[in-house]
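> run fold ANTAR domain-containing protein
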Amino acid sequence: MTDKDAGAESPLIPEPTRADPATVFSALAEILYSGSDASEVYAAICVAATLLVPGCDHASVMLHQRGQHVTVAATDDIAARIDALERRLGQGPCVDAITENIPQIDPDLRTASHWPELARAVVETTPVRAVMGFRLVIDQHKVGALNLFSTTAGAFTTEAAAQAGVLAAFASVTATAVSRDQDIASLRAGLLSNREIGTAVGLLMGLEKMTADEAFDALRRTSQQMNLKVADLARTLLEWHGRAHNP
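> ok
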């Protein structure tokens, strides 16, 4: 995949300036469930970063494959270009995040930077002024990084880093599936029970005029009384409803 290819924008998630985290993660799960391939999932994660992480204007995912760092997705050419600079210079938060155990953050590239050559090149050739890199992990092996870029110096606060860490954890799940040569269908199967629970909650909300919290609590209490897992009870409820409406 070329840097130019990586810069193609994902059409999978709409791009408001900021979004509710629950909505974004639900959209990501739906992308997995709908049968998207790995490249589409990585692209969606990059777009999600700009929606979830305060101050994030551009993002990319870089993986270590066959001895090389490869950009597998990016929101745009700016993110892909910075990845290319890091590979050429052999330094930067994205490259270091793959080998280090802590997030790599430079809130202002215009001041003394951990990566002086990269900082100089980024400031001179792009509008980016702050960078973060979070490693992606498979079975405790570091295999890649989620890379975030801001055009505003100082925008990457503690809150932004915390949000990015959550998203990086989600990205690691995807990287795990791809690294183990599992197809996206296998990953979707792992999400199926959660999807059924959500559908059952929606069904109870409609039938019993409950709120989402009330419906989930009802499922949880009933599952305990019947000594069933919540997912199994949700599946049974959906099957019952299907038979009732399709005798």
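The longest helix spans residues 184-208.
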